[in-house]
Amino acid sequence: xxxxxxxxxxxxxxxxxxxxxxxxxxxxxxxxxxxxxxxxxxxxxxxxxxxxxxxxxxxxxxxxxxxxxxxxxxxxxxxxxxxxxxxxxxxxxxxxxxxxxxxxxxxxxxxxxxxxxxxxxxxxxxxxxxxxxxxxxxxxxxxxxxxxxxxxxxxxxxxxxxxxxxxxxxxxxxxxxxxxxxxxxxxxxxxxxxxxxxxxxxxxxxxxxxxxxxxxxxxx
Length: 220
Hints:
By secondary structure, this protein is of the alpha/beta class. 35% of the residues lie in helices and 20% in strands. Helix 4 links the parallel strand 5 and strand 6.
């Protein structure tokens, strides 16, 4: 773990991996609504193993430091409450602090999951800090579909996601034809998380393969 300081002076914790090696690129990884928990650390480690320097900012530090939740119904409710108490502008400041803390000279990307998928979209549309952005099942992207990404962007959705209607996905496709959008038949929300009942290993592996290929193409 490390600490970051956002532009407004807020100090937050973050999980870092791959910072001491010969990384080929750098990534900000954005958490779900469950904090920087065991799953998010596993995700970070997997990207570090793929050759990236990564930082995962603890976005909940704005309202509840050290939060790590599981995936039961009570955890979902608590995570939603915590997310609702944070101004999206401040979340972006925390993401930009993470980007600034990545090793200098490396091309930077951003990837996020669940809430983080939406935050990764904001990172692409509301800042110029990244050369590529990937969002997995970001439920707030449709509401921001008219925002224009400033870097190449790729999105992943589950076709049976109860929280993201396919009408929303199609609205994003229509509004942003320049964005790569992948839909996984039979997959629900959180299909990439090995600790959730909605986990679909084959779809998670394919989405990760596409994510890595996208970053390999644009973070050069």
